[in-house]
Structures are given as structure tokens and as C-alpha cells.
Design goal:
9 strands, single chain, mainly alpha, 2 domains, 6% strand, two-stranded parallel ribbon, 3-stranded antiparallel β-sheet
Length: 501
């Protein structure tokens, strides 16, 4: 049971709740803080003080005072007017991650909402009621307004939701789960809409997968090195101690372990005419390690954000103050996601170069052209490198940073925006491609190992080879391979290669 107290959440915790593998509850101390915060808002309403977000309009309309009798109408109109997202909905896992992150932020007690609002979000997680949230429409400045509005729409019993995977009206989903829809009170609409949790949810799950595929790329690279009869000399511990970047040293150690006890290496240890391998083989620790370093930095940013108050205004119960600020601005996440996108694209680039060396007869002399025993009548793996090139090209286009753009919104009140949601969804697409191109290298390298038999590769490489062969048989004649690539990509996502090395 994960008790929400507004604390930082790890990527693993977010992933577990998103996939329905971890239950959630509101911690008792958090409930007390939320109640204290709520009393501040109630006192403001009772005293008739004018405070932004409580009894004023929003954004450009912040100078408009709202009468007490209209406060509930104000919150309802806010949710309805902002529910104009477009495009395909977030996956149910992403929407569940969004529910989790929003509940955790509200649990900090800076938002002035009632405890029942946080508890309803948790009930939706526990009851498998997942809002249908279109992924397009957020500029990531005053928070992810459109996506979070669609979340709020489900809470009040409007819009659509998934219930146990079936899409239906939110009112029906809530009724089946025996959850009462809420009538939002003063400040509760803006408490739900202000924040970075949509981009954080999409980006967190994408990063979790990115870190996984980066680990498997080490495995694929080691397998390619064996198939090409490369040398592990460049992975010598002393080389990397002389340039002690943590990621670089970690990858070098992993490669040494993957290649341990290699019969293939021993067979050409004494008479290998090559002094050095190509960079795509020799520089795996430097490149793969740098990618790990970038992803590690992005993880730190995301995990800070999971325990950060991103509402506006913030309610400070200890002093009774309500202060407007800009914690909803998505710049920290937008920049981080763009960084991860560029790092992962570079990882794809070095992967594609290794695939080319496996199949290109001009790049290696002792493997058959395109890894087919019948070049000419058969094309073998020719097309896999072409597909890899296409995936890489798409990733390069998507890696253009979203965070450098700015389109002022809300009548100029929101005159600098982050475009963080765009950065998050682009990163997700690049991760999709990275899994596919890594699957291509695994399949291609496994085929290359067939031409080294009966010599056996290193122990970790052998384990990975066996996993590939459990899904993809050796290519004895040309065949369609789309399904097999997808199957290996799924095996990467599902952790089947984690045991290798």
C-alpha cells in the first residue's frame, strides 16, 4: 500500500500504480494538512476577502470579483470551458499515473481543497475508473489545463472514462464503481486544473521505458560485437577509470560481464589483424554511458516534480496566506524531456550504425552479405537496416526541442509557456522507436552469431541470444519480419532481457 503524503515518488512507484500493481491510500497526516488548508479558503469566503483563484475570475479575468453565490458555478464553468482537449486519449496507464500524481500534489495541503477531493481521486484509482484525457491541447504554462480539466470532468460525473477497460460516460463509470460524483466548491476547480501532472505522467512512464531500453542496448551492442568478432579491449577497466563518468564506467563493466568467457573472442585473440574496432563498437561505454547520465538527470527532475506543489495560488495554512506564483510552469520538465529525447536519439543512432555493420558487405568481410546464405535470390536482413534508418530519421525530427518555442496565450497574460506536454509526447514516440530499433539489432546480431557456431559467445550474450531465439527462429529463407520485430520490442518492454548479463 502506497500512502500518499505529498512525498517524492520514484519512477518505479509511479509505474507500479499506473499498471495497477500497487494500491494507494491517503496518509493520515496529509488529511490533516488538507483540512487545515481548506479552513483558510473557507475563512476567506466567509470574510468576503478578494483572493485570486478563490473568488475571482481566472487568467486575464483575474480582476473580476465573483459573488459568493456564484462560486460553485465558477468552478463548474472553469472545468467545462477548459475541457477542450483533442487527439487520441492518454493510455490508461498514463491517465492512472496522472490521477496518482494529482492526488499526491493535493495531499501536500497547499491547494485549499477538501479532503474528499483527494479521496475521490484515490477511489478512482482503486475502483479502476480512468478518465478519458485527450493528449493534445496543453501548452504547459498555467499547468496542463486541458488534460487536467478532462480529469476534473470525470470527477463531477461528466465527460468519459474507462471502467475496467471499457469506455463509457463518466457518470456510468462512477456509478458502477460506487463512487459519488463531486460538486466542486470554492477553489477546487483551479486546484484540479493548475499543475504539471499530465506532462509528468506521460514523461515519467516514457522515461521508465527509456531507462529500460538503454540497459538492453548494452546487451544488443555486446551481441553485435561478438557477431563481428570485435575486441573487448576498449572496455578495460583502467581506460574508464581514467575518465570516471559514472555511466561510462557502469556500461564498460556491464559489457565486460556480458562478454565474459567468450569462446568467439578466444578464437581470434592471438591472430586478430585489427588494432581497433569502429566507433559504434569501441565507444559503446562513452556513448551509452552518456545517455545513461542524461536519463539519470531527467529522472531526478521528474522525481522532484512528483512531490512538488504546482497549484496557483498556494495556500499556507500556518499563516493563513494565499500567495500567487508560477509553480505550474512546466519549464523544468519540458527542458528535461527534450534532453532525454536527444539522448535517446543518439543512442538510436549508434544502434543503427551497428546494424549496418552486421549486414553491409562493405563494412565487414567475414559475414555473408545481408546475413543470408543465398545473396541475390534472397535479400536476408537488407530491409531491417532500412527500417532502422527510417525509425532513426523519425526520432531525429521528433528530437527537435519543444521547449524552445513560445506562443503567448490567454490574452497575453500567459506570455511565456513551456510546451512541456509536447515534449513529453514526443519523448514517448522516440521511446517507441528506440525499442523497435533495439529489437532490430538483437534479431540481426543473433543471426550474425549463427555464423560463429559452434563457438559460443560470452555468457550474458548467450542468454540474450536464447531469448531472441525463443521468439524469432533463424532465417533460413526470406520471410516477413514485422511481427517478429514487434515481438522482441514487447519482450524488451516486459523485461525479458533483464536477466542477460
Amino acid at each position: 500500500m502506497l500512502e500518499l503524503d505529498g512525498q517524492r515518488l520514484s519512477l518505479a512507484q509511479v509505474f507500479a500504480v499506473a499498471r495497477g500493481k500497487e494500491r494507494v491510500a491517503l496518509a493520515a497526516p496529509a488529511r490533516v494538512r488538507v483540512e487545515q488548508s481548506r479552513k483558510v479558503v473557507e475563512n476567506i469566503v466567509a470574510e468576503g476577502r478578494t483572493v485570486y483563484g478563490v473568488n475571482t475570475g481566472f487568467g486575464k479575468l483575474s480582476d473580476v470579483h465573483i459573488e459568493p453565490t456564484q462560486l460553485r458555478e465558477l468552478q463548474l464553468n472553469l472545468v467545462r470551458s477548459h475541457s477542450c482537449g483533442l487527439g487520441p486519449p492518454l493510455s490508461e496507464s498514463e491517465a492512472r499515473a496522472l490521477l496518482l500524481l494529482r492526488a499526491n500534489v493535493l495531499a501536500q495541503g497547499y491547494s485549499g481543497c477538501r479532503p474528499v477531493l483527494v479521496e475521490t481521486l484515490i477511489e478512482m484509482l482503486e475502483g479502476d475508473v480512468t478518465p478519458v484525457i485527450p493528449e493534445k491541447g496543453s501548452v504547459g504554462a498555467s499547468g496542463d489545463l486541458a488534460p487536467l480539466a478532462h480529469l476534473a470532468l470525470t470527477i463531477i460525473g461528466e465527460g468519459e472514462a474507462f471502467y475496467h477497460g471499457e469506455r463509457m460516460a463518466s457518470a456510468d463509470a462512477l456509478q458502477r464503481a460506487e463512487i459519488e460524483p463531486l460538486e466542486l466548491d470554492a477553489k477546487e476547480g483551479i486546484a484540479l486544473l493548475n499543475g504539471t501532472q499530465a506532462m509528468a505522467a506521460v514523461g515519467a512512464l516514457a522515461l521508465f521505458r527509456a531507462e529500460n531500453v538503454a540497459r538492453i542496448t548494452d546487451v544488443a551492442g555486446a551481441m553485435t560485437l561478438e557477431a563481428l568478432r570485435g575486441t573487448p579491449a576498449a572496455f578495460d577497466e583502467r581506460i574508464h577509470a581514467a575518465r570516471p563518468h559514472p555511466g561510462q564506467m557502469e556500461v564498460a563493466a556491464r559489457l565486460r560481464e556480458l562478454l565474459r568467457d567468450s569462446e568467439i573472442r578466444q578464437s581470434h585473440l592471438q591472430d586478430d589483424p585489427r588494432v581497433q574496432d569502429a566507433y559504434s563498437l569501441r565507444c559503446m561505454p562513452q556513448v551509452h554511458g552518456a545517455v545513461r547520465g542524461a536519463l539519470s538527470h531527467v529522472r531526478e527532475i521528474i522525481e522532484i516534480e512528483t512531490g512538488s506543489a504546482t497549484d496557483n495560488p498556494l495556500v499556507f495554512a500556518d499563516t493563513g496566506e494565499v500567495i500567487s506564483g508560477g509553480n505550474f510552469h512546466g519549464a523544468p520538465l519540458a527542458l528535461a524531456f527534450d534532453y532525454a529525447a536527444m539522448a535517446l536519439t543518439d543512442l538510436m543512432s549508434i544502434t543503427e550504425r551497428r546494424v549496418d555493420r552486421l549486414v553491409n558487405p562493405d563494412a565487414n568481410e567475414d559475414l555473408p552479405p545481408f546475413l543470408t546464405s543465398h545473396p541475390g535470390p534472397a535479400s536476408g536482413f537488407m530491409m531491417l537496416q532500412i527500417v532502422a534508418a527510417a525509425l532513426l530519421n523519425e526520432a531525429k525530427v521528433l528530437a527537435h526541442p519543444a521547449s524552445i518555442d513560445n506562443v503567448p496565450t490567454d490574452g497575453g497574460k500567459e506570455d511565456h509557456v513551456s510546451m512541456g506536454m509536447t515534449a513529453a509526447t514526443k519523448l514517448r514516440s522516440i521511446v517507441d522507436n528506440a525499442e523497435l530499433i533495439t529489437a532490430i539489432e538483437l534479431i540481426t546480431a543473433a543471426e550474425g552469431l549463427e555464423y560463429r557456431a559452434p563457438l559460443q559467445p560470452g555468457q550474458g550474450v548467450k542468454q540474450a541470444y536464447n531469448i531472441v531465439r525463443a521468439h524469432v527462429p533463424r532465417l533460413t529463407a526470406d520471410r516477413a519480419m514485422s511481427h517478429e520485430i514487434q515481438e522482441i520490442a514487447a519482450a524488451i518492454r516486459n523485461g525479458e532481457f533483464d536477466s542477460a548479463g
